[in-house]
Amino acid sequence: MKYIVIGLGSLGREIANYQTKIGNEVIGVDINMRQVEAIKSNIAGAICLDSTDQEAINALPIKEVDAIFITYGKDFGISVQTVALLKSLGAARMIVRTISSIHETVLRSIGVREIMTPERDFAAMYVAQTILGDRALQWDRITDTHHLYKMKTPEVLIDQSIETINLEENFNIRLVAIERLIEGKNLLGMTQKRYEVINHITNDILIQPNDLLLVFGKTEDLRKLASL
Fold first, then answer.
1. How far apart are CA 152 and CA 155, in angstroms?
2. Helix (H) / strand (E) containing 81
3. What's the average model confidence in pLDDT over 168-174?
4. How far is CA 175 from CA 192, 201, 203, 218, in A?
5. Could you give the CA distance from residue 70 to residue 12 in angstroms, rounded to a whole number?
6. Which of 28, 19, 18 has its CA nearest to residue 1?
7. pTM
8. What is the pLDDT of residues 5-15, one digit of tens each?
9. Is the separation of the CB atoms in 41 and 17 below 8 Å?
10. Cα–Cα distance between 219 and 156 in angstroms, integer?
């Protein structure tokens, strides 16, 4: 897939680098040449231009990419101008970082449907880690009340079957998948450990010591599981 990332600060760089690592093609854009130089060798391309300049931004392959990320973290005005300009040029999908509730309201009023709130999401993740301890490895907000977590397996569940544990009945939590540590040979014939996803969950599966659980539910219910 192909993406444009506008704004190559810390968030923009992380998005661009991660998308590249998983095999996607990314063009990075920033008005600051130092930001462009810092990332250009890591991604498909990086361009120095003013995202509020119609002539400059019209040179980008706006209609050829799957989505455009706008990641400005300080300037409300530049973010809104950039989004409005991209929309007028036919950008189909934009994912935009907001810096305040007013900013979000303005963006939604001009038709932006996908919003990033990294500070709020980080705060929620920090709270989750405080509640769940070091078992919480990764968090994704699905709704305001229900979240998806990757967590270390509580010791008490090891060697028990999915049927015996019955997370939905006992904890009101849904088990989405299991990441299981396996050993295999790499291309050089060396033994290598890696995690493999088990997404077809059957009742006879036994939980193993290094399993990571992908679970869906409310934080208060997940806390009960983490405290076992």
1. 9
2. helix 76-88
3. 91
4. 27, 8, 11, 13
5. 8
6. 19
7. 0.62
8. 999 999 999 99
9. no
10. 20
Q: In angstroms, rounded to a whole number, what is the distance separating the alpha carbons of residues 104 and 135?
A: 33
Q: How confident is the model at residue 118 (pLDDT cuts 50, 70, 90)?
A: confident
The HSE-up count of residue 169 (CA atoms within 13 Å, CB side) is: 5
**Measured at the alpha carbon of residue 60, what is the angle toward residues 16 and 114, in degrees to the nearest 5?**
55
User: Which residue type sits at 25?
Assistant: E
> Strand runs (DSSP E) across 36-108, as ranges?
45-48, 67-70, 94-97
β-bridge partners, 197: 179
Q: Is the pLDDT of residue 37 over 80?
A: yes
Query: Residue 197 in contact with residue 177, Cβ under 8 Å?
Result: yes
- How far apart are alpha carbons 96 and 120 in whole angstroms? 14
Read off the tokens for 12: 């923009």
